[in-house]
Amino acid sequence: MSSETLPILLITANVGSVFEDPAKLLKTWVQEFMDVIKKLEPVFLAVHMQEVGGKTYEKSMEYVQEFIKILCEASELANYDRIRIYLDEDYQSAEHFTALGNLYFARNSIKSLKIWNFLIHEWEDVVGKSIHTGSIESIPTKEKAKFPQNFFPECKWSRKGFLRTRWDIEGSVMDFVNIHLFHDASNLAACEEFPSVYCKSRRRALVHTLERFEKDTANSRAPYFVFGDFNFRCDTEGVVKKLTEALTAHRVANKSADSVKVQYRDSEGQNVLTVGKKEFTHADHQTQFKGEWLRKFDRELDPLREILFEYPIAFPPSYPFEEDPEMPQNYMNSRCPGWCDRILMSPAAKQLIASEEIKYSLIGEDSCMGDHKPVYLQFDLKPNQGSVESSGEIGEIIAAINDMIENEFAKQLDVKRHSYIQINSGGDGDVLLNGQAMIFRETTV
Questions:
Q1: What is the pTM of this model?
Q2: For 6-185+193-233+298-408, which CATH superfamily applies?
Q3: Count of alpha carbons within 13 Å of 60, Cβ hemisphere only?
Q4: Among 278, 293, 354, 375, which is disulfide-ready with 5 (CB 3.0 to 4.6 Å)?
């Protein structure tokens, strides 16, 4: 095994909706997952999950435990004798809770397998099965963090952050980073410009995380695979312009701000596209967004392609699918479909891949997997590569991009200060900053 390439399988899955309706979705999800394992037969499997337990974690904990039990006891995984699972379940801690889950399975054919201890900065041999649940803050074989609170839109905590592990697989070292970035809260705000306010916040958090790794002298740098729910969205402004070239816009407003919509109608007065805060509906919704034309509007990663590599995407948008088993290929009318779920890697990690014969696709394309379809990358890993050194130039580029982003946010903050009002204390709905309440427009919700 030491001289042969190693089949590796990486999977990212936002499983929030699966745990909100496990009776309807969980069995199918597990079956599709196992089918991929049987088909590809990896010697090492890394699964990164987001929104583990759904939005009401306290009600879903029993299903999470049952889910882990099903995976660990599955016949398809019987030959995976070394397992490491990290589930962030401490939902009562707003400061730390991310709802991220990292699951790793290694076959008995792997002779040398080690995991990094981030506390004592040393390697540990991986033996047997270890499942870490509940509060995992003190577990030393992982690094976990939420993004700084001022990174969050409206400065409101949500379950967004990263969870990192480091592995030595047959003499080749790499980090596996699970990440969950901010979503688009309003389609109307996303339509205003590109990059949207949400895109800018996502990019800021992602680059901040990469620079954190670059500056981690205690653990040193290592090649990394970053896979999770990046919440990357299409250039909504551009998509709307493309879809409405010969249409006229009509603003429809009710008393509630959340019910404001823009309807784009043809010459006969028929609605073709409707955009609301949480509505995005096209008259030909189920075929329109599966065309190749949409790919050119997938632009969020473009400014970062020097520092993050991704194999070409040849699959439909991974979100937002209907959660109805009778409509497994249909998109919901809530958002413009987008490639939220991705598997990216540093240039150094790309050097660990033995050939371009890879598979990058969706799991369960013809089955209901919840609102997100899982995404997988299968490749052959070169053994005995040590820790491939990243170019110093990459670190300089990351630092330069981060400085540019932070300078832009600082300028925006200066502009917003003109909209502050002085207060003594904030009410329940106020966002406080240095004793002041920030007034937010719809575009920053």
A1: 0.91
A2: Endonuclease/exonuclease/phosphatase (3.60.10.10)
A3: 24
A4: 354
